[in-house]
Design brief:
single chain, 383 residues, alpha/beta, Rossmann fold, Arc Repressor Mutant, subunit A, 3 domains, 5-stranded parallel β-sheet, globular
């Protein structure tokens, strides 16, 4: 029997290289983010004069180029430092992979050449080993370390602000934090905030024309010539602009549309493939999120679905009453429901909007479902 992979490798594809369509790909040019990259560089340039730079925080919604800009500036700084008599390291840590202070410090030690186990030592031993790197520099130069902490809010929420306390109190260390949430500093105690004193850089959402520029550059690198119908990039850009200017979503749409073209044995990507890609992406995203939710959150979603199908305005009080009906006696407290609402909103499944009922009647949170009701119903009742 012929090897299945040999068979698949022989198939024609509209792609010549998929890598540039991956959001982690770092191109030679980052359209529409020069202003933010320049701001980062203006703070980091101090390192080239052997001075530890200021701490920086990058804010912006998912897909606004924060990580790409930080890594672009990182490559530029490393290149500039290679021509000067300075010793600079810029290390990237994704806080979804390293979720405790111990794990982050151990990873930094390993990146800097120290053999530290991922578990088994005390936190004090790991921190002392990390700080010792700065005291005993084999290069005979002062080491300046810039640590990029991507999605720092996840680390702070899970493990507290110990990592910031340690890094801000280690000589010659600068931090660049990246977060999707402006309020992530609620996890930082005042004693740590006083040491952080970060400079803030905001990344606004991309608009449709900017997304089109990004996609055009990536498409040229990824697809064979004359593979895209004229309306494909404008359609991907318009759809992603409605999703809060998310470049990752735009790239996912274009990639999936290309995969559909391959499935259809077409040598051109058409607008219809983009629409099919949107449905496929939404289906996969929503399904993956819902099936992994705790049971009680699934019941809250079931209650929201029921009220939505009845065309009822969903307040937190009405939601709780319906949730108790769905739960049939196995329910959580009213206060806990607010936590569930916040978590579901962060996942993009629902949205909330505070409205005023008029003088003397106070304000009310209105909850709205943000995914297709048929998809939600199918997923919930197939679990």
């Amino acid at each position: 029997m012929e090897n299945i992979f040999d068979t698949l490798e022989g198939e024609e594809s509209i792609f010549k290289d998929k890598k540039p369509l991956d959001h982690r790909f770092l191109p030679e040019n980052l359209p529409h983010r020069n202003e933010q990259i320049t701001q980062i560089a203006k703070y980091w340039i101090e390192a080239l004069n052997n001075v530890t730079p200021s701490d920086i925080t990058l804010y912006g919604k998912t897909g606004t180029g924060k990580t790409a800009a930080a890594n672009f500036a990182r490559e530029q700084l490393i290149e500039a430092a290679s021509n000067k008599n300075v010793f600079i390291r810029v290390e990237y840590i994704r806080c979804t992979d390293y979720t405790t202070e111990y794990q982050v410090i151990a990873q930094l030690c390993q990146k800097l050449g120290r053999d530290v186990p991922n578990r088994g030592w005390t936190k004090g031993e790991v921190i002392n080993t990390f700080r010792d790197i700065f005291r005993k520099n084999v290069h005979g130069k002062k080491l300046i370390l810039i640590v990029i902490l991507d999605e720092i809010d996840i680390l702070l929420e899970k493990d507290g602000d110990g990592i910031l306390y340690t890094l801000t109190r280690t000589e010659n260390v600068s931090i660049l934090s990246i977060s999707n949430y402006v309020d992530f500093k609620k996890f930082i105690k005042p004693r740590v905030m006083s040491s952080l004193r970060d400079k803030e850089i905001v990344f606004p959402p991309y608009v449709a024309d900017q997304l089109a520029d990004i996609l055009s550059e990536r498409a040229e690198l990824s697809f064979k010539p004359n593979s895209l119908d004229d309306d494909v990039i404008p359609l991907c850009s318009a759809m992603a602009a409605k999703e809060e200017g998310d470049a990752r979503y735009a790239l996912d749409l274009l990639t999936t549309a290309g995969e559909i073209a391959d499935e259809e044995k077409s040598d051109v990507i058409y607008g219809d493939y983009v629409r099919k890609a949107k449905d496929r992406i939404e289906h996969n995203k929503v399904t993956d999120i819902i099936i992994t939710l705790p049971t009680q959150q699934q019941r809250v979603l079931e209650a929201i679905l029921k009220l939505t199908q009845n065309n009822e305005e969903i307040t937190s009080g009405k939601l709780y009453d319906t949730y108790k009906e769905v739960s049939k006696g196995d329910s959580v407290t009213y206060r806990r429901i607010f936590d569930f609402i916040n978590e579901l909103e962060m996942l993009g499944i629902i949205s909330t909007n505070t409205i005023s009922r008029g003088r003397g009647k106070g304000r009310t949170n209105i909850i709205t479902l943000q995914c297709d009701t048929k998809l939600l119903e199918t997923t919930l009742f197939s679990i």
